[in-house]
Write a structure and sequence with these properties.
This protein is of the alpha+beta class. Helices cover about 55% and strands about 15% of the residues. The chain contains four helices and five strands. The strands form two sheets. A three-stranded antiparallel sheet has the order 3-5-4. A two-stranded antiparallel sheet has the order 1-2. Strand 4 and strand 5 form a beta hairpin. The longest helix has about 35 residues.
């Protein structure tokens, strides 16, 4: 099917003006079409990688939401503060915790939830 249509277009990849023979032509030639395709693939791979990285980053928070008793480090992660600040909050009584041993301090999840109510 041949066409006698000649439409002035601008290539979506290199932004050069060209004469298209159809109304749906986007690129000035085969090389620009291939380069645009590769660019689209690259962008989609980067987005997929970013999404996977975000899931890995959020995984510890998902695990912390299900635990009933938390360590001081996990409490610091939830409160977005340092471990030393968390110990300070425990010392002054803002957060109620149980010291099970020399280095075993546990905080009940409900105590963290009470801070924000």
């Amino acid at each position: 099917m041949s066409s006698n249509i000649q439409v002035k277009r601008i290539c979506q990849h290199c932004n050069n003006e060209f004469t298209a023979r159809t109304t749906v032509t986007k690129y000035c030639g085969d090389t620009c079409a291939k380069r645009a395709y590769k660019a689209r693939l690259k962008v989609s791979k980067i987005e997929a990688s970013d999404k996977q990285t975000q899931q890995i980053k959020n995984q510890p928070f998902e695990e912390l939401k299900t635990k009933e008793f938390l360590t001081v480090r996990e409490v610091a992660c939830l409160l977005n503060c340092s471990v030393r600040s968390t110990y300070y909050y425990i010392e002054i009584g803002t957060i109620k915790a149980v010291n099970l041993g020399k280095r075993i301090t546990r905080v009940k999840r409900s105590e963290i939830d009470k801070l924000f109510t």
